[in-house]
Amino acid sequence: GAGVSQSPRYKVAKRGQDVALRCDPISGHVSLFWYQQALGQGPEFLTYFQNEAQLDKSGLPSDRFFAERPEGSVSTLKIQRTQQEDSAVYLCASSLQQRGDTEAFFGQGTRLTVV
Amino acid sequence: DAKTTQPPSMDCAEGRAANLPCNHSTISGNEYVYWYRQIHSQGPQYIIHGLKNNETNEMASLIITEDRKSSTLILPHATLRDTAVYYCIVRGNTNAGKSTFGDGTTLTVKP
Q1: Are B16 and B78 within 8 A, CB to CB?
Q2: What's the rounded Cα separation, in Å, for the pair B92 and B98?
Q3: For residue B88, which residues of chain A lie inside 8 Å, CB to CB?
Q4: Residues of A in contact with B50 (CB under 8 A)
Q5: Do A109 and B92 touch (CB under 8 A)?
Q6: What is the pLDDT of residues B32-85, one digit of tens each?
Q7: Residue B82 near residue B18, CB atoms below 8 Å
Q8: Which residue, A103, A42, A31, A107, is CA-closest to B48?
Q9: Beta-carbon separation of B97 and A56 below 8 A
Q10: pLDDT at position A98, please?
Q11: What are the residues of chain A with a beta carbon less than 8 Å away from any beta carbon of chain B?
Q12: How distant, in Å, are the alpha carbons of A6, A40, A110, A111 from that of A56?
């Protein structure tokens, strides 16, 4: 596709429910990142993939958060037993290479509201 | 992972140049300076990046000081549509996936 695509755009979950957020990166992009953005704050790093390998998951806030990219393309961020503090916009970004001189492009994000 | 410091907010008159500063005093030699902006309810949009030379593209210019400890993003003729939150981040080859965004600068362009 032309850009990074995320679905759904909006998700309302009841507390305790499991959710799955999808990211379709730009075709051919090796690197994929997930960020969490709370209201009024900048994006915060969650995890990073190079192809199918998850190279850094240091930003995941708890073991309820899990991300995968099994075939090195589409990625899914899963949150188990959602809690109210998980309410945020979840952003996905991809870049052609894992290099400092290669820009990352962001999707529109998924706004998760836990009620 | 170098951190950046930006003023929380700035105003600019429509049609005038908007100059947004960023401090990145702990930047290392192989880290690039990137600028993104985010309009409400959208994902961050890439604007420009540079290593040590000044850069210009169709959206903006990036001026990096000689010691690389600070930079300025210049929007030469700001329009109302440039109202957004602007983020300055640094990215290197080893940490390109772990950029720290901070809270950015909210630029308000006024008619």
Answers
A1: yes
A2: 9
A3: none
A4: none
A5: no
A6: 999 999 998 899 999 999 999 899 999 999 999 999 999 999 999 999 999 999
A7: yes
A8: A103
A9: yes
A10: 75
A11: 4, 31, 33, 35, 40-45, 48, 50, 55-56, 58-59, 91, 93, 95, 98-109
A12: 21, 25, 21, 23
CB A110 within 8 A of CB A85: no
CA distance A54 to B20: 35
Option in B32, B42, B44 nearest A101 (CB): B32
Cα distance from A49 to chain B (closest Cα, Å)? 8
Phi-psi region of B59 (alpha: psi -120 to 50; beta: other; left: phi over 0): alpha
What secondary structure letter does DSSP report for B42? S
Residues forming a β-bridge with A75 = A23
CB pairs under 8 A between A and B: 67
Q: Residue A94 corresponds to which amino acid?
A: S
Round to whole Å and give the CA distance between B2 and A32.
Answer: 21
> What does each C-alpha distance from B91 to A27, A51, B102 come to in angstroms?
22, 19, 14
The whole-angstrom separation of Cα A114 and Cα A11 is: 8
pLDDT at B1 over 80: no
- Residue B81 to residue B37: CA distance in whole angstroms: 11
